[in-house]
Amino acid sequence: MLVLRAVSLIGGAVITTGTFGSVVRTVIIPRAVPSRISSVLEAVTQWVATRIANMRAAYPDRDRRLAYAAPAFLVVRLAAWIGLLVVGFALLLWPLMSGSLGDALRLSASSIFPLGIATARSAAQTAVVFLETASGIAVVALQISYLPTLYAAFNKRETLVTLLASRSGSPPWAPEILARHALIDNLDSLGPLYAAWEEWAADLTESHTSYTPLLYFRSPDPLRSWILALLAVMDAAALQLSLTPLTAPAPARPFLRMGIVCLGALSRAAGLPVAEDPSPDDPIQLTLSEFQDGVARMAKAGWEMDRGAEEAWVHFRGWRVNYERMAYALARRVDAPPGPWSGTRRGRLQSSVVPVRPPHRSPSPEVLEVLAITRARQSRREVHPHLHPNPDPAHGPASAPSSDEAPPRPEP
To answer: Which of 139, 142, 162 is nearest to 150 (CA)?
Structure first.
């Protein structure tokens, strides 16, 4: 019996210290420190959510179900921490009691929060109960303070993702980004775009490696995704450097490098394989035919190229081999929308969704006629201001004089 109670003390100490370590590594330490408890619960939660989502073929239905996975993981992890503390402190209390292990569990469950269902009967029990109550309150308080940090990082991430929707459509796609800029003759804004996304990728590296549940928080729009947005802008920079190397903006190269660093850090935090130093000649999943289709879409929009598609393909592949595998693995892990140039997904899922460009609409002849009449009236008022005096508020709007009335003479 003494041996059993000694094992109980050791087991309780291991469980409580391990749980505290998980809380500290997850919530307090501002870096990517692995926690076995969090990793296991995260994997289980995502597996269950993915199994449920795979029952649907339409992506909006899948996305609606997957949106609950990350919040559910936070609740499950908090419950697991509390449950482990109850078990751990029960094992610590049992050697200090004359009752059974069930009595120790009852006292521990009552003490994790000050419920008063069961009370300690000795000084040693009181000390353990006091420590357990303080631990339970501390864990809940840390979790509550953890949530604003998560949602602040989420909102900061989604702002730029939403802004990209007007430049590329949803889901984002690199050829569409460049095509839309060519259509409106706005190529000069691509440099600032890459600079903004370089800063965004650096912030994402810091926040999403420290708080990995952010990887699974989904965008409000089903067809938007942080990983597809990053991949699309990186592909746009690689396309521009491959097709128009002499006129490509300077921020394109440092942004691509920051994007590769970001994807590598996120892949390590998620336990995915990382492409350390791939060769430019290594194969990629994107095919030459898919690349040519994207380049043709850009050319149709008026994009002027220094290289043809086949010549630029060698250079584009040399860029993409550095990040394609990591981006595809992350997109598959978070079950991102089925956008073009983004790999495959699990389960019964529809084919890639190409972003729809808003139609170009010109004014109808009737609208042009109304605008012409309006401009004529404005010109007439400027030439003959005396025909349109200011209205008198007391007598209503003034009207132009009739044809048989003489215009008023100016006073001397």
So the answer is: 142
